[in-house]
């Protein structure tokens, strides 16, 4: 029996009801998830596991693989005896024997948080370039129906304000030598590989560009803004901003994002990039204040403070605005985000609160 958290159980049921056709396409298949112990990979594995048990006719058989470079082995330990899930320690770059044929490949493996990828630029490039190449080769060899590449909204760099909201055809304003280049540029080349494998070998690659996804399961020490705020809120504050609070982001609750991404995998056009996110653009200060209200008492929000990061490069090449144009994914996939930021943050906080309670009680 799967024991994902209560919040993820609820999310799974909502997803089953909102995108039934997508799960029908994933039924009775073998699915490889790379980077499966990370935030997004583990959420996908949990959702499929919950739905397998709720309706065994789904019968989605998952190989959940990770090399644990940016996470720990505990995240999916509750699925150790799940008959639908095989947990596998593997580096996506050099694993050669996967032991079965895959119908779908969901390639999430890549460090995603600057505090993890900046000290390891070569491993970051390796996962996004060589790892993506391996996964495309594997999709071809197995005759897979789709290989989903998790690119990033970071491929747009710091966009020209005339291109906010940012459509997929915007080419980006990106440094190839700055402190984030290993990530941004390897995601760009990963997309080029997907396009090229389709053009030359008809491998059905699918590409999503996630925009700041947050939600249950993200590690509290991940180093991205929402887990940092959650961690501070659990300790009673203050909520700390390491910028002046003016940069904007459009945060997307993970259930919406994964529904959109699975939609792209199954219904999206091959070799076409799709923005997937939420177009509710907010300044960092707004987000921090919202979090302070959610975690505080009525009329008594937590403190919000501004500090300077100890890391001199913390804000270098940090985009000043981020907001997706969702026209294309709406039209091709029928995607529509449904969780507003306040609801999503409250839900995420509840998840951590429950988990902390469970840990203390255990
Ligand atoms: N979460 C977001 O908001 C967001 C935004 C843009 C892009 N993405 C992309 O989505 C994917 C998943 O992101 P996430 O937030 O879950 O990141 P994450 O850091 O939580 O998880 C990534 C996982 O990949 C694993 N990994 C890294 N290199 C590997 C390798 N060579 N072989 C096997 N496993 C490897 C790590 O150990 C980790 O468990 C990444 O490709 C990321 O770049 C995420």
* Strand order in the sheet with the most strands: 3-2-1-4-5-6-11
> Would you tell me the overall average pLDDT?
95
**Named CATH architecture:** 3-Layer(aba) Sandwich
N-to-C SSE series? HHEHEEEHHEHEEHEEEHEEHEHH
Structural commentary:
- With 362 residues, the protein is an alpha/beta fold.
- The chain has 11 helices and 13 strands.
- The strands form 4 sheets. It has a 7-stranded parallel beta sheet with strand order 3-2-1-4-5-6-11, with helices on both faces. It has a two-stranded parallel ribbon with strand order 7-10.
- The longest helix has 22 residues, at 121-142.
- It is globular, with a radius of gyration of 19 Å.
- The two termini are 19 Å apart.
- The structure holds nicotinamide-adenine-dinucleotide (NAD).
How would you summarize this macromolecular structure in one to three sentences?
With 362 residues, the protein is an alpha/beta fold. The chain is 41% helix and 14% strand.
Which tags fit this structure?
binds nicotinamide-adenine-dinucleotide, Rossmann fold, two-stranded parallel sheet, alpha/beta, 362 residues, 7-stranded parallel beta sheet, single chain
